[in-house]
Amino acid sequence: MEITCYRDQEISHESRFLPAATYNLAITLLARSETRNLFVPIRAMQYLAILDAEEFVFLDGERKCWIDIAWRNFRSQARTSLEQPVEHDVVYYRHGQVAIMARLQTEFPRALQALASKAKLDGPARVIKFPTP
Question: What domains does the chain contain, in order, with CATH numbers?
Answer without folding.
Answer: 12-118 (3.30.310)
